[in-house]
């Protein structure tokens, strides 16, 4: 009954096929719009020999997130300086335990942390030794 209902609507088949091939709507949304089942849309499309690739189907269903706003600019990347190896080596050599939880270096993985959170400030007074749990827990 729904099939004849769909075919009796003027321009319905052409509109469905156009929207399907232009990859503007999902099969489910087309079915809701025309008050038919998704399977009847699929049958109609198959009957007309139209095939949607997986990539085209994904383009409709999954809206891609724009990560450009989250990426650092080249200026931001260039501004951050890595901790000099000599300073890192001296601090790790002199480290005995985590500053926060006092866990000994034999039982935990120690890391060097910036106290003020500014990764550009590599002054020795701004650095402290923390275990991995304490360093990740402060974020």
Q: Tell me the β content.
A: 5-15%
Shape: rod-shaped
Low-pLDDT stretches are none
Mean pLDDT: 81
Q: How many helical stretches?
A: 8
How many domains in all? 2
From the alpha carbons, calculate the radius of gyration and give it in angstroms.
30 Å
Distance N terminus to C terminus? 60 Å
Q: Give the total of beta strands.
A: 2
Helical content class:
40-55%
The profile of the biggest β sheet is: 2 strands, antiparallel
The chain-level structural class is mainly alpha
Largest sheet strand order: 1-2
SSE order: HHHHHHHEEH
Description:
With 139 residues, this protein is mainly alpha-helical. It has two domains: 2-61; 80-137, no CATH class. It contains eight helices and two strands; from the N terminus they run H-H-H-H-H-H-H-E-E-H. It has helices spanning 2-8, 12-21, 27-34, 38-47, 54-61, 74-79, 85-94, 132-137, and strands at residues 110-114, 127-131.
Task: Write a short abstract of this structure.
The chain is mainly alpha-helical.
How are the SSEs ordered, and which strands pair?
Elements: H1 2-8, H2 12-21, H3 27-34, H4 38-47, H5 54-61, H6 74-79, H7 85-94, E1 110-114, E2 127-131, H8 132-137
Antiparallel strand pairs: 1-2
Helix pairs in contact: 3-4
